[in-house]
## 1
Amino acid sequence: MERKVEAELSNASKITKKATRTLFEQVIAKYHERLLGAQPSPQFPASYAEEFVVKRRAVIDKLITSVFENLPITKKAKTKLYEIAARIFHCDSFWGAASGIVIAGYGVDEIFPSLIDYDCDFRVDGFVRHKERRRMSITTETTSAVVPFAQTEMVSTFMEGIDPNLQNAILRGLESLFTAYSDVVKTHIGASGVDPKLIDQHTSILLEEFTKNIREYRRREHVMPIIDMVALLPKDELALMAEALVNLTSLKRRVTPDAETVGGAVDVAVITKGDGLVWIKRKHYFDQSLNQHFFDARRAST
C-alpha cells in the first residue's frame, strides 16, 4: 500500500484534494481490513473493542488530529480509525516489540519436564495481552530437545550446520535462478508446442524437492545426532552445553555490528524432578570477595 501511494504521488503532476482523500481512505481501509482479519486475543472479552472506543474516544480524537492534521477525514474513515485503534489492542497479532516469558520445569504429577513459551507486549484495563508461541514436553518418544529463544541464529547454525540467513539467501537465489531459467525455456521452446504452465509446474516441483532434500539432510546429519547425544548427557554437561551456546551467541554479537543484546555474565541452572532448581553458576550484584560474610551466613543456614 505504501508503494502504491508513492507511485501515485510520483506520477501525479498535481495532487488534488479528491486524490488525497482517495489515497488516504485506501490506506485506512487496508489497515482496517488487516486488523479485522486478525483473531481476537483470548484474554479480552468479545465486546472489548467496542468498550475501548467508548471509553477512549476523546483520546483517539486527539491522536487523529495530531497525526493526520489537515487531511480530509470522512465520517466513514474516522469510524474505521476508531476500530483500528481498538483492534490493535484487541487482536492477537503483535505489531511491535514483545517480551518473551519461558516457563519450564515439572508439574506435581509430571514425570517428564515441559516448556511453554509466551510473548507478552502490554497490560491494559487489567488484561495482559500474551500469546503462546510454542509448547514442548519430553515424552518416551521425544527424549530430548534443544530449544533456543530470542536471538536464535547461532544456536540454529550450531544445530543445523548452516546460518539460517545464509540458507534463506541461497533458497531465494535458487528460486530466482529457476524462475529466470523457466522464462528462458519458455521463450525459446514455447513456440514448439510445450505448454508454458507445464514448465512452471515442473520448476516449482524441482525447487520444492530440492528444499525438502536439504531440510531432511540437515535433520539427519546435523540436528538428530546432537539431539540423540543430549538425551544421554549428564546434568553437568548439559549445563555446560547451554552456557556454551549462549556464549557463542554473545561472541557473535560482540564482533559484529549487531546490537549486543546477549552478553555479560551468564546464569546457569539445572531443573530436575528430584532436586528442583539448582544453580550451577549465578552472578551477584556485588563483589563476592568483599562480602564473604554473605556466603558464610548462607552456608550456616543450610
## 2
Amino acid sequence: MPENELATAWPEICDEMRAVVGEFTHHLWVAPLRPVEFEDGVLVVEAPRAIRGWVEEQQVPLLRDTAARVLGRAVVVRVVDEGGSATAGATRAPARGAAPPGPAEETPPRDLLNPKYTFDQFVIGGGNRLAHAAALTVAEQPAQAYNPLFIHGPPGLGKTHLLHAIGNYVRRHDPGLVVRYATVEAFTNDFVSAVRGGATAGFKERFRAADLVLIDDVQFLAGKVKTSEEFFHSFNALYEGGSQVVMTSDQRPGDLRDFEARLQERFACGLVAELDPPEFAVRTAILRKRAALDELLADVDDETLVAIASHVEGSVRALEGALVRVVAYTSLTGRAPTPDLVREVLERLYPRPRTPALSAARIGAETASAFGLTGDELLARTRKPTHSLARQVAMYLARELTDESLPAIGRSFGRNHATVIHAHRKIAETLAHDSGLRRTVGDVRERLTAAQGDRN
C-alpha cells in the first residue's frame, strides 16, 4: 500500500478503536502507536517499549479487526519497538528500503527521530550527568568536541533518548547539517539490501556524506563480518572528513565480544560515557515529569509516585512501564491510585525480597541501638534531631523489610500512617546523597537480615 494511503487509513482506524475502548484507554494504548507500513496484508506498527507487551496482549486483536474493516481485506498486525526491533516470534515486514533506491533516495521512516526525546525531557542525575553533558556539548558543537562519543549502559537508562535528543537539537538549531540516525539492525538491513541490489554506492553516500551520524546498539554488530567491515570504513570516512559520530551500546568498548580490535579502538578513541541506574530522587523526578506531561496522569498523587520509585529500581523504561500499569489498573478497576495499590499491582512484576519474621518492633530496637538510643527514647515525643532521624530510619526499614501495613507500622512507633509515608520518602531521598546515613542504614539492615538468617 502506498504511504499516503496508509496515512489516510490510520486516523480512521484510530477513530474506530477510540469509539470501542473509550478516550482514556485509547490515549494510553492506541495514541502512542505509529504505522510503519502495510505490505502483503501485514500491518507493521511501532509502539514504545514500555507499553509494547500490553499492546500485544490487549490491543492487537481489536487493531487487526478494525484495520481489516477499514482496509477492506484480511490483516496481520506486527508490533515492533520504536526504532524497528521486531517483537519475539514476529517476522518483520519487508522494509521500504529493501529495493534498490530510486533517483530521489528518500529517507526511510526508521531514519526519523522521535520528537519526544529531547534534552528538556531528560532528567539529570548522578548516574547520567556526564553522558548528558557530553551529548549536549556534541549537539551544540558537532565534531568540535568528543568525537566520537560512545555512550554505554544497561538497557532502559536513556541511551536512545540522548541519541535522539542530539539529532533533534541539531535539526532544530542547525537545519543545514545532514543528520543520519539508524539502529545497527537498520544499518545492516540497508547494507544487505544495497549489496543485493547493486546499490552500495548509494548506501555509502547516504551515511558518509552526513554531518552527524547517530548509531544505536552497536553491540549487535558482533559476528556480522561484512557489515562490521563496512561500518569500519564508513567510520573512518566520517571521522577523517570531520563529521560527528555518536554511538550507543549496552557494553563498554573493551567488553564487546566478537569485535575486531581495530573497531573497538575506534569506539574508544573519543569520549566514552557511562549511564548508571538512576537513584531514588532521579526516579521520582522522572515519574513527576511524566505525570506532569500527561494530563491523564494528573490524578496520581506524589505519594503514589514515590511508592513506584521505591519499588522499581533498575530501568527508566521499567519505571515508566510500572507507572502505565498502575494507571491502567486504576482505569480498569475504578480504584484510586495509592501507595498500597502500587504494591499490590507491582509486587508480582517486580518482587522484592522480604524477611517475613522481622517485625517493626525488632527493627526499632536495632535502629535505636545503632543511634545510641534506648527503645523508649526512639518512641519519645521529642523533636531532637538524632531521635527524629533514628525514628524515621526505623520506619523506613520497617516498610522496606516487612509486609506490615502502613497503619500497623505507625502504631509500632506511636505514629500514624501518614508519618510513615513521610519518613520513608524523606529517608529514601536523603540516602541518595548522604553517604554517612547510607552506611548507617546499610549496617542496620545487614545486622537485621544476618540475625534473621541465623534464626532460620
